[in-house]
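Comment thread on ticket #2218

A.B. wrote:
> Attaching the input chain for the structure job we discussed in standup.
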Amino acid sequence: QVQLVESGGGLVQPGGSLRLSCAASDRIFAVNDMGWYRQAPGKQRELVAEITSGGTTNYADSVKGRFTISTNNAKDAVYLQMNNLKPEDTAVYYCNVNALFRPQGYWGQGTQVTVSS
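C.D. wrote:
> Ran it. Output below, let me know if you need it in another format.
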């Protein structure tokens, strides 16, 4: 029943910024971690960033220093601030939440990010 609803994707110019949001439609208990993945055409899905319930973050090398993952105070939403965007960041971005009682995780529907001039 719980769904992750994503928003914030769009078309931006190289060097621009974009903020992705992902909100749970209902309460998720015992969240272990939350993260963002992306998949570009012809490429495998890759982990972009993740944050644990304890606040530890992990980023793909390609986005370190440019992207920042965060959650809200209620821990029912996850965000991805993307700065200095590059064409190679173009992909469909998916949010993910792992929880104790849902080992397969919850996934957002995906939001398109296109970086082009």
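A.B. wrote:
> Thanks. Noting for the ticket: The radius of gyration is 14 Å.
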